[in-house]
């Protein structure tokens, strides 16, 4: 199915901003499961400088600078993306999770070497005993990788409450694990921390959900988890909605955690107090 994704971020300042420099991850990735027909970035006021490049993880990144007084900044991304439905493997066909852990630890093959870098801690994802203990309820001895990972995803969905007022992006995953409250970014960080604490590679995926009432988090940037499984590559899991993404998720970028793929970030001189408003819409183009 073909979708039109529109992402609008509006900054309003109490005092004029004289200079701002920003970096955005707003262009969807081309992958085996989606192809990008078009992706356009619009910035108001018009930037003095715009530059695009690929980051370390292969994501499309745009950088822009505005050298002139302004009280409002609007960043709009519009993309047309073909999303191809995906049929996940059967749970019993995947190896035991310990096999995946051990093969990644040795990392003799190119694919396990690439996955190995996602085993380690990152700025927003620390590992530790608490995460390992939570994960081991799902990752019992000899259990297949997919069955165990689906169970962990299901438990986060059931045991954690989606609450937009409970956390900020700076809230540590350890606090989210204790409080059992948060949003999609928090749930993704917790799940990644659990898997990495067992030596399993997991990465953070930023993207969008098809608009509508069926999915939680559909009217803003969404986040989920991609976990590596030997013989099957990277498999996606959305603990906020307890699903393996297929057909309704649009991937924008991936990295170690939110910090690698934040949709919009930057620095500004001046501005006083600011308010931020974000809206996301993802609809089939036929609608």
Keywords, please?
single chain, 287 residues, alpha+beta, six-stranded antiparallel sheet, four-stranded antiparallel sheet, 7 helices, 12 strands, 22% helix, globular
Instruction: Kindly report the average pLDDT value.
Output: 94
Given the C-alpha coordinates, what overall shape results?
globular
Radius of gyration equals: 19 Å
Number of strands: 12
Largest sheet: 6 strands, antiparallel
Secondary-structure element string: EEEEHHHHEHEHEEEEHEE
* Secondary-structure class: alpha+beta
Poorly predicted runs are none
Amount of helix: 10-25%
Distance between the termini: 12 Å
Summed up, the helix count is 7
Q: Roughly what fraction of the amino acids lie in strands?
A: 35-45%
Walk me through this protein's architecture.
The protein has 287 residues and is an alpha+beta fold. The chain is 22% helix and 40% strand. It is built from 7 helices and 12 strands. The chain has helices at 97-106, 110-116, 129-136, 145-159, 173-179, 184-196, 258-261, and strands spanning 2-24, 34-44, 49-54, 60-83, 161-162, 181-182, 202-209, 222-229, 233-237, 249-255, 264-270, 274-284. It is globular and about 60 Å long. The mean pLDDT is 94.
